[in-house]
């Protein structure tokens, strides 16, 4: 007898014959409601035992705290239970396929976590004397070498704290290089319409004017439009490759050559480097700067919104302008830390410091562990399986969902669909919420902006064929319901910890901190 | 490869569904000149878990572990005891391997935690609201300067000489590109902060004054006169807190009318980690919330009327506003915010205040003991858990000598302010609940020997 994979028995009715609609607690078996710490804790309870405070005088300059902070405390068992209960209201890659396009939710190997917690990495101070932290500097240096070789670039800035911070690093390198050349008047950065929102935000922050470059009907940068716009006022172009439609920018080398000929630089958003790692080196495409999201390509955990880590690889032209601090391995094997003090002679053109210390060390240890585990051969396989999985999803669903660029050839690491085939009144959002009821996190929705009702599916290489097949079945089922106009989809999700949340109310009357309610 | 589930027969079957003859057919858009014919040259191939762990452990062993030696480093990163349950809880896969909560129906765990975090942070800093975290204290600081420029439409920022020099460096880097004009100075080895200089420098062009509390030398000053002076000229007071445990013992900057309070949250839950990842704290007065950078979590209800939480006010953010956003920040420091929040929950009011006083009294005792070393004096009259010593000689070589003896003695001002001769004899010493009386004796004795 085969196993009924849905867990459903033929004799059961849909609602369950005698299921109560409400429970005393509001809980539903393993689905547990959890109050806020402010509602369950109090100011007298604590989950730590401290040594007795020494008796003595205070030297707080007359500024000793006179009022309560208002912090609730919980004992350790209550704390463990509170956060364990909260955790169970989250979807996560550990629970299932997490197909967020452009976000790259791949398996996070646990060896990485173990290594990052070794006391020799976790319990080391950033300002400890350099001779006492040679191993930590060694990690940064070894990872830097890998990133340079994998990308075919000349140098790397390790300190940026996340992808957007890396973008800023690259753009500041470009700005510094232009100023050094006496061409600080170049004020325009060209950004394709399909770019991540961070690209124009970064360029604007650094004082540049952003101009959009249109896309071609096949989802790529309009090379002719871009070339036509180049001129003495253009500082750089920012291109994502593979782009946010999941397509390789075939003309990138030609674009780079044209940009360089016109006196500009090429910034590549490396958010999607995982699609080509080990198979293509961006340095071979004429890129001058590219950030690498270690939390995407190299599997450091996303943690519910960070920390990220965004090292930036740099061309020979831009390397002299990279930020402080950085490491340099001397002939005797000793690793030197180049800071403001020592930068003067060897690195006079640095644009400065971006963050207090050395960057995301805890992410460097994880990423290096991941990279060493895979090696050059394994990383190539990572890209190939990521691309294979995405194309499998694309070809398995293009008959039921509109895939605007599928006719033109294969995709890279993510498959893009639109809402064109859905019934009137049904949207991409309804498909996403329907997928939640099927036990999946939805794909990225309404991005990129160049496709109406975009659904961007990135399965990553760490999914098995069985997991992909189940996901494809689920998305097909939801898409068919959306095409047929199933009204139940409009109010999905039905089985999640919460139904659709009122985001308009949240924005109109913001409640951003907990306040004691007057007794009813 | 242990992390790749596809078998060769899976791959063949999938290629056949796709209609491709080989994997190379899927990379057809890559120009031939850019295609690599095999794995990247000059790099090793894959390795077993055992082999990788050995390699990384060997690197870890080349570092002096803070917890294994007498340890007195601070200056923006502090060693505190983190309860075991914190690290256990943040490693739950539902927290560790979740994404930014863009689908709130299946991310209430992260969202409720962020709402609790925002409330804890706001209460600690004494602000009306706080956001869902920044990268770290130094980037939160320059984001605050930019925020003050947007609010006041003025560009002159006055930075206290007591602001961490790396925070000043970050602000200087950014000011080169944003048009902010920074008024900066290096500190003097006096018991008083530069409050008078700051108040005198405020004029009608001033967007903000940035002051660290306690400052880089560990000194504490009442911020109320400074806040009044700022507000008289329609400038904002930005307070920077690099040691949040201090606010368990001290009046918060928000209570002293600071408009924006930012901080480094690393002390609670996160650990030293050689400088990152850390967690930036960012709070402000209610009236400025729409100019705040970063993500915000807000309370709402679902379609059935149940309380729930969502990311909100995202019209400030880059994914909606693109080049008109308040900041380019996207990914922030969610998991470190979780660690911070769990540690704060374990402590509670009673625990945090107890921890703060334990730190302070230990620091007072250590300062008194170290002042007995011939030639050594304490600069500060007031401090929390960190103070500055002046030595009769340059402190930096002394720190190196003591490190050779297995003592991490503190952060020399020569390291923080290279080239500033007046500061070269200064040594910043931090003392926390992890410091023992024996550690202090060891340091005092060694210092006496080295200086003799």
General description of the model:
The complex is a heterodimer of chains A (520) and B (452). By secondary structure, chain A is of the alpha/beta class. Chain A folds into 2 domains: 112-367, 3-Layer(aba) Sandwich (Aspartate Aminotransferase, domain 2), CATH 3.40.640; 380-506, Alpha-Beta Complex (Aspartate Aminotransferase, domain 1), CATH 3.90.1150.10. Helices cover 32% and strands 9% of the residues of chain A. Chain A contains 14 helices and 12 strands. In chain A, the strands form 3 sheets. Chain A has a 7-stranded mixed β-sheet, sandwiched between helices. In chain A, strands 10-12-11 form a 3-stranded antiparallel β-sheet. In chain A, strands 8-9 form a two-stranded antiparallel sheet. In chain A, strand 4 (234-240), helix 9 and strand 5 form a beta-alpha-beta unit. In chain A, helix 3 runs antiparallel to helix 11, helix 11 (361-397) crosses helix 13 (465-484) and helix 12 crosses helix 13. Chain A is globular. In chain B, the strands form 3 sheets. A 7-stranded mixed β-sheet of chain B has the order 1-7-6-5-4-2-3, with helices on both faces. A 4-stranded antiparallel β-sheet of chain B has the order 10-11-13-12. Chain B has helices at residues 8-18, 49-60, 84-90, 93-96, 108-125, 137-152, 165-178, 195-201, 224-232, 318-321, 334-370, 395-404, 413-416, 437-451; strands spanning 129-130, 156-159, 181-183, 206-212, 236-241, 260-264, 280-284, 296-301, 307-312, 377-378, 386-390, 411-412, 426-430. Helix content of chain B is 37%, strand content 13%. The radius of gyration of chain B is 25 Å and the shape is globular. Chain B has 2 domains: 69-81 and 353-451, Alpha-Beta Complex (Aspartate Aminotransferase, domain 1); 84-343, Type I PLP-dependent aspartate aminotransferase-like (Major domain) (Aspartate Aminotransferase, domain 2), CATH 3.40.640.10. With 452 residues, chain B is α/β, with parallel strands linked by helices. The chains are: A alpha/beta (520), B alpha/beta (452).
């Amino acid at each position: 007898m085969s196993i009924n994979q849905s867990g459903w028995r033929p004799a059961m009715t849909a609602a369950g014959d005698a299921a109560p609609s409400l429970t005393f607690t509001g809980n539903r078996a393993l689905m547990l409601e959890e109050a806020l710490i402010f509602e369950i804790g109090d100011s007298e309870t604590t989950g730590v035992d401290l040594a007795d405070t020494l008796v003595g005088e205070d030297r707080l300059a007359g500024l000793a705290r006179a009022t309560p902070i208002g912090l609730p405390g919980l004992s350790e068992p209550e704390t463990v239970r509170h956060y364990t209960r909260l955790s169970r209201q989250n979807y996560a890659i550990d629970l299932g396929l997490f197909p967020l396009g452009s976000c790259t939710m791949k398996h996070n190997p646990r060896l990485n976590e173990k290594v990052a917690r070794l006391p020799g990495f976790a319990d080391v101070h950033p300002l400890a004397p350099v001779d006492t932290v040679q191993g930590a500097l060694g990690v940064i240096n070894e990872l830097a070498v890998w990133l340079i070789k994998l990308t075919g670039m000349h140098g790397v800035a390790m300190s940026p704290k996340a992808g957007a911070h890396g973008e800023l690093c690259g753009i500041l390198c470009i700005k510094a290089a232009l100023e050094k050349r006496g061409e600080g008047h170049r004020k325009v950065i060209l950004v394709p319409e399909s770019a991540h929102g961070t690209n124009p935000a970064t360029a604007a922050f650094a004082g540049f004017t952003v101009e959009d470059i249109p896309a071609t009907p096949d989802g790529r940068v309009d090379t002719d439009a871009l070339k036509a716009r180049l001129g003495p006022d253009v500082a750089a172009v920012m291109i994502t490759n593979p782009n946010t439609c999941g397509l390789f920018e075939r003309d990138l080398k030609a674009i780079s050559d044209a940009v360089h000929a016109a006196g500009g630089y090429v910034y590549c958003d490396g958010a999607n480097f995982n699609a080509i790692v080990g198979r293509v080196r961006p340095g071979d495409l004429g890129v001058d700067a590219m950030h690498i999201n270690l939390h995407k390509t190299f599997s450091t955990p996303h943690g519910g919104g960070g920390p990220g880590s965004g090292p930036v690889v740099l061309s020979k032209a831009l390397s002299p302008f990279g930020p402080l601090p950085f490491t340099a391995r001397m002939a005797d094997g000793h690793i030197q830390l180049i800071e403001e003090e020592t930068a003067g002679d060897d690195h006079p053109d640095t644009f400065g410091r971006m963050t207090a210390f050395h960057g995301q060390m805890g992410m460097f240890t994880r990423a290096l562990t991941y990279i060493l585990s895979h090696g050059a051969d394994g990383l190539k396989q990572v890209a190939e399986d990521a691309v294979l999985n995405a194309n499998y999803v694309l070809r398995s669903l293009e008959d039921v969902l509109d895939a605007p660029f599928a006719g033109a050839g294969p995709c890279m690491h993510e498959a893009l669909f639109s809402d064109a085939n859905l019934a009137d009144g049904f949207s991409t959002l309804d498909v996403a919420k329907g997928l939640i009821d099927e036990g999946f996190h939805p794909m990225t929705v309404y991005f990129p902006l160049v496709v109406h009702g975009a659904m961007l599916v990135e399965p990553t290489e760490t999914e098995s064929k069985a997991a992909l097949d189940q996901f494809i079945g689920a998305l097909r089922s939801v898409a068919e319901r959306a095409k047929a106009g199933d009204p139940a989809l409009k109010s999905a999700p039905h089985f999640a910890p919460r139904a659709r949340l009122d985001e308009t109310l949240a924005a109109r009357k913001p409640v951003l901190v907990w306040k004691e309610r007057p007794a009813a | 490869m242990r992390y790749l589930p596809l078998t060769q027969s899976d791959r063949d079957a999938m290629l056949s569904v796709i209609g491709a003859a080989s994997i190379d057919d899927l990379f057809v858009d890559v120009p031939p000149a850019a295609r690599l014919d095999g794995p990247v040259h000059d790099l090793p191939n894959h390795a077993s878990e055992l082999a990788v762990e050995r390699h990384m452990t060997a690197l870890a062993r080349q570092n002096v572990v803070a917890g294994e030696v007498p340890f007195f480093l601070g200056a923006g990163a502090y060693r505190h005891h983190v309860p075991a349950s914190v690290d256990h809880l943040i490693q739950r896969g539902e927290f560790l391997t979740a994404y930014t909560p863009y689908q709130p129906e299946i991310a209430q765990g992260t969202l409720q935690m962020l709402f609790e975090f925002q409330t804890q942070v706001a209460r600690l800093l004494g602000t009306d609201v706080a956001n869902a975290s920044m990268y770290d204290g130094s980037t939160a600081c320059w984001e605050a300067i930019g925020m003050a420029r947007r609010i006041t439409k003025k560009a002159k920022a006055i930075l206290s000489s007591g602001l961490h020099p790396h925070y000043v460096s970050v602000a200087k880097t950014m000011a080169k590109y944003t048009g902010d004009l920074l008024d900066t100075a290096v500190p003097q080895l006096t018991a008083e902060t530069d409050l008078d200089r700051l108040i005198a420098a405020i004029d009608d062009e001033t967007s903000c004054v940035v002051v660290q509390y306690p400052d880089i030398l560990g000194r504490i000053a009442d911020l109320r006169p400074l806040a009044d002076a700022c507000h008289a000229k329609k400038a904002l007071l930005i307070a920077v807190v690099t040691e949040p445990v201090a606010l368990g013992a001290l009046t918060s900057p928000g209570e002293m009318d600071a408009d924006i309070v930012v901080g480094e949250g690393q002390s609670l839950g996160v650990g030293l980690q050689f400088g990152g990842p850390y967690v930036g704290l960012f709070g402000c007065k209610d009236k400025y919330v729409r100019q705040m950078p970063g993500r915000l979590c807000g309370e709402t209800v679902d379609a059935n009327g149940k309380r729930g939480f969502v990311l909100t006010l995202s019209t400030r953010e880059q994914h909606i506003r693109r080049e008109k956003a308040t900041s380019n920040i996207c990914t922030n420091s969610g998991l470190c915010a979780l660690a911070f929040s769990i540690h704060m929950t374990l402590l509670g009011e009673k625990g945090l205040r107890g921890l703060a006083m334990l730190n302070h009294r230990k620091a007072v005792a250590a300062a008194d003991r170290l002042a007995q070393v011939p030639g050594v004096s304490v600069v500060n009259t007031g401090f929390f858990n960190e103070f500055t010593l002046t030595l009769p000689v340059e402190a930096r070589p002394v720190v190196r000598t003591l490190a050779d003896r297995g003592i991490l003695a503190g952060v020399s001002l020569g390291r923080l302010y290279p080239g500033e001769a007046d500061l070269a004899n200064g040594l910043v010493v931090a003392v926390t609940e992890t410091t023992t009386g024996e550690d202090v004796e060891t340091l005092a004795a060694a210092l006496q020997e080295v200086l003799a």
